[in-house]
Every structure is written in structure tokens, then in C-alpha cells.
From TrEMBL:
It comes from the Bacteria. This is TonB-dependent receptor. Residues 1-30 form the signal peptide. The lineage of its organism: Bacteria, Pseudomonadati, Pseudomonadota, Gammaproteobacteria, Alteromonadales. SUPFAM superfamilies: Porins. Keywords: Receptor, Signal. Residues 61-174 form the TonB-dependent receptor plug domain. InterPro entries: Plug_dom, Plug_dom_sf, TonB_rcpt_bac.
Length: 518
């Protein structure tokens, strides 16, 4: 909550009239008494809530030397979004990287998340969290995982898009500072709470969320604030992906020239994925065609428990000297499950194209293939991310022109993943089809094999359709029910992959900084 106070007094014109003696002597003698009464009856307008937070953010931008964006919560627990990264995505020039539907990391002006310098209460911080492989996996870089923290813990975020001498180096794309609540931000005693829940019809689950804060300010001399936030819920997402795309290049020549220089190489290294000639499909007309590496349907489910707590002390023995002690703890526990039903076209050199359609960019937007591997894959991970930081700061106005700031702090971030278990069943020598063209039915592609001719299509949908004939040779004529029957027949599958891994990431920061401003 931000409070603005406006005091209305006599205008300059009225004051000059009084001082110049233009008014009567009676009024002149009464002026001191009238001014005393006026001082006791000054009209005070307090601007609070959402409007006050916007005014404070605008003032912060005006005072900045460079380009700065500021987000200020109108009150504790009232950030624009439930996720800090999602709030940052509202700022021009910032985009977010998501994991399971939540913002995880941010990029500023197109540069990657590892080029963003993130501080908490002015101290450099590191935060590592776990994620699905589709979202980049566990964070082993200097990028900051914002989803570890509950947004209710913070009252202000500053985004500096330009460099400044007062900022620490390392933020090539920008600097982001997260500010937790402090007692001097509120008058006297204050308590606040926020309790809510959401229901998702996708996973049919209720997710509770709660935050509490208590603060006391003794005349801006000494103050104590404590807050806690907790949330528990399931995040589920469903969709399709390709695991990137590759190019079929049977005419590749070792140490040869690229196609752009008159050679035949679309790749810089020997191809790992090749399509076999079939009927009218030859190496010549298949060369240079792009195909997905792992076209698949996917379902991600993540059970998250997020806990955050802060405690802050402020002490100002004089108007020119103040001290701040901030303690922050955050934890994020994840139990995630992934389910994929996919075609392994990557690293296969004996895939037979049966019926393919190509667009103007030489992309196989729809195709049926035989001698393929269908994989039904599941993965389960358990992870725990913890973050702890203690920082002690002070501000000393030595005189009207000379100021000293200092910071002493210690922070630690740990990520423990005891289990990353993957199990997969493979159906070899299968016939499969996919279609990114909404006008082409993948079932018709399977039912019309033989490599007759390369058709023409277009990439006009982000959600492809599939047909999986598990363990079946080409040449069959299937209905949807028959395709479903062979997909679920256990005799068509064998064990393809069993894997268990673990991972531990530890980060630690220690900071001592003294700044002088003149």
C-alpha cells in the first residue's frame, strides 16, 4: 500500500498580497491567528490502493537516470499475478519461459535468461529449480528461476534495462531487483491476509493458496515485519511437440560444400536420420526434405508445494541513519509425471516413407512411414528447491551532499532431485502417420501406402493429428476402432528403456558492498 499526502496552503498570490500590505491592517493583524487555525484545519487527501501504487511506480521511473520499469503491489499479497515471472511479462521488452504453464525464467530484449542479473533486496542471488526436459531441464546456468518464490513475499520489482554505475555488473540484458516487504512501508500496526483457492477441470483438483503478514512500526524508529505464504496445487498441461526438426540428406558428402555454395550438404555432419527410397520416392526427390525428429502427444502433470517466509527489522536511530535486516526463506517441492506417445524418427536410417505431403518450404507437413518405432514413455521426478538469504543493509546521510550505503549478505540455493525415473515400451516395425495439415487425415495416409507420389500440403495447424498402427506392416486398411485396438494390444510392445538418475545443484553467494554517493 502506498500513501500520498497533499497539504493545501495559501497561494503565492495571496501570500504576496499579505506581505505587500495590500490588504487591510485588520486582516494583517489577524493573519498570524488565522494561519494557526488554518494549520490545524489543513485538508488532507490520502491516495491509497491501486492508484497509489501506480503513482509510486511513475515516480520511481521519473527518478531513474536510465530506462527503468517498476511494479509495485498495492498491498501485501496483491501482486498483479500469482507468479512473479508472469507479472514481469507485462513489462515491455520482457518475455518469459514457461514450465508446466507457469512462468519460470525471463528474457529481456531478446537476450537469454542467463544474461539477466537478478538481485533480492539489492543482493545478487541464485535460484535453481527443476523442470521438464521440454522446458530445459534443471537449471544449471546463472539464470534465475522465479517460480521458486511466492509472489506474496514481494512488494516491489525494479527492472533496469540500461547499465548504471550504481548497479552491479553482469546484467548484459538488464537487472532485476525483487524487494520484500519492510515495516517502515506501513504506519503503526498492520495485519493482512489473503486466502483463496482455484479449481481446474483439467485435473479436477482444488489448489489452495494463503498468505499472512504482521507488521508494527514505532514512529519510524523501529519496526518488525513477518510474512508467510503457502500454496499447494497441481499444474497440468497437454499438447504435442516434435523434439525439433531434421533434414533428410542422403547426398551428404564428407568434407563437401554446403548447398548454398554449390555443394550437396544440408548438414554440417553426417546425417543420423535417413529416409529409404520407396517406389517413386527416390534419394533425389527426398533430399533436402525436413521431417520432425520425435512427433508425439504429451501430458505433463506437476504437483507443487510452495512455501515462503520473510522477517524484516528496521532501525533508524536518527533521521540520517537507518539499518535494515532482511531474512528470506523459500522452498518448492515438485512431484511431476510425464506421459508421451511418440514416433522415434530421430537417429533412424531405415525409415520407409509410404505417403508424404510437402509444403513450399520442403517440409513434410503430413506423412506415413513404415518400419518405424513407436514408443510409449513415462517419467516421474521428485525434486526439492530451497533458498535462504540474510542481508544487512544501512543508509547514512553524512551531510546534504554525501551519502554512504552498505550491504552485507549471505545466500544459498539448493536443488535436490533424488529420482528421475523413466520407463518406456517400444513397438518396432510399426506403421505411423502424422499430419500438420488440417485437410489431410493421417488414417487415410496409412491406408494408402506405396510411395506413389509426393503430394502438396501446408502447415496450417499447431496441433497435429496422428494414426499409430503399432507393430503393423504397411498395406492394412484400418478404421479408428481397429487403430485403437492395435495401439492398446500389449503383445505389440517390448521394454525399450529403463533409466533412473539423480541430480544435486548447490549455489552460494556472499556479498560485502559499500557505496558512496556525492
Amino acid at each position: 500500500m502506498t500513501t500520498s499526502t497533499h497539504n493545501f496552503k495559501l497561494s503565492k498570490l495571496m501570500t504576496n498580497l499579505i506581505l505587500s500590505g495590500a490588504l487591510t491592517s485588520g486582516l494583517a493583524y489577524a493573519a498570524p491567528q488565522d494561519e494557526a487555525v488554518a494549520d490545524d484545519q489543513l485538508e488532507v487527501i490520502e491516495v491509497k490502493g491501486f492508484r497509489g501504487s501506480i503513482n509510486a511506480a511513475l515516480m520511481s521511473k521519473r527518478e531513474a537516470v536510465g530506462t527503468r520499469e517498476t511494479i509495485i503491489a498495492e498491498d501485501i499479497g496483491k501482486f498483479p499475478d500469482l507468479n512473479v515471472a508472469d507479472s514481469l511479462s507485462r513489462v515491455p521488452g520482457i518475455s518469459i519461459e514457461e514450465d508446466a504453464g507457469e512462468g519460470r525464467q525471463i528474457t529481456i530484449r531478446g537476450l537469454g535468461s542467463r544474461y539477466v542479473k537478478t538481485t533480492i533486496n539489492g543482493m545478487e542471488s541464485a535460484s535453481a529449480g527443476a523442470a521438464t526436459d521440454a522446458a530445459g531441464g534443471s537449471n544449471t546456468s546463472r539464470a534465475f528461476d522465479f517460480n521458486v518464490f511466492a509472489s506474496e513475499l514481494f512488494t516491489q520489482i525494479d527492472i533496469n534495462k540500461t547499465v548504471s554505475a550504481e548497479l552491479e555488473d553482469g546484467g548484459i540484458s538488464g537487472n532485476v531487483n525483487l524487494q520484500t516487504a519492510r515495516p517502515f512501508q506501513y504506519d503503526g500496526f498492520k495485519g493482512a491476509y489473503n486466502v483463496n483457492a482455484r479449481y481446474s477441470d483439467v485435473d479436477e483438483d482444488v489448489s489452495p493458496r494463503a498468505s499472512f503478514m504482521l507488521s508494527n512500526n514505532w514512529d519510524n524508529k523501529f519496526g518488525v515485519l513477518a510474512s508467510i505464504a503457502y500454496s499447494d496445487g497441481t499444474v497440468q498441461s497437454e499438447g504435442s511437440s516434435t523434439g525439433r526438426w531434421t533434414v533428410n540428406n542422403p547426398s551428404f558428402v564428407e568434407d563437401g560444400l554446403p548447398v548454398g555454395q554449390g555443394g550437396s550438404n544440408y548438414l554440417t555432419v553426417a546425417p543420423k536420420t535417413l529416409l529409404m527410397p520407396n517406389g517413386n520416392y527416390t534419394n533425389e526427390n527426398l533430399d533436402g526434405l525436413y521431417l520432425p525428429r520425435i512427433p508425439r502427444y504429451s501430458l505433463y502433470s506437476k504437483q507443487q508445494k510452495r512455501l515462503g517466509a520473510t522477517i524484516a527489522f528496521q532501525y533508524a536511530p536518527t533521521d540520517d541513519l537507518s539499518f535494515n535486516l532482511d531474512v528470506l526463506h523459500a522452498s518448492l517441492d515438485n512431484d511431476s509425471e510425464e506421459y508421451h506417445y511418440e514416433v522415434l524418427l530421430r537417429d533412424q536410417k531405415d525409415i520407409v516413407p509410404e505417403n508424404i505431403y510437402v509444403d513450399a518450404n520442403n517440409t513434410i507437413v503430413a506423412g506415413a512411414y513404415s518400419n518405424s518405432i513407436i514408443r510409449s514413455e513415462t517419467r516421474r521426478d521428485s525434486s526439492e528447491s530451497t533458498f535462504d538469504q540474510v542481508s544487512f543493509t544501512g543508509n547514512w546521510f553524512i551531510n546534504d551532499r554525501f551519502k554512504m550505503n552498505f550491504l552485507i549478505g549471505h545466500g544459498k540455493s539448493d536443488l535436490d532431485i533424488p529420482n528421475m525415473t523413466t520407463f518406456a515400451l517400444d513397438s518396432n516395425q510399426s506403421t505411423v502417420a502424422y499430419s500438420f495439415d488440417s485437410n489431410i487425415d493421417p488414417l487415410s495416409l496409412i491406408n494408402n501406402p506405396g510411395g506413389q507420389a509426393i503430394g502438396s500440403g501446408e502447415l496450417n495447424t499447431n496441433m497435429p493429428s496422428f494414426a499409430f498402427a503399432a507393430g503393423q506392416a504397411p498395406g492394412g486398411n484400418y478404421s479408428k476402432d481397429e487403430i485403437a485396438s492395435v495401439m492398446t494390444d500389449p503383445s505389440n510392445y517390448t521394454a525399450g528403456l529403463v533409466r533412473n538418475r539423480s541430480q544435486t545443484i548447490e549455489s552460494e553467494n556472499k556479498t560485502i558492498r559499500v557505496d558512496f554517493t556525492y
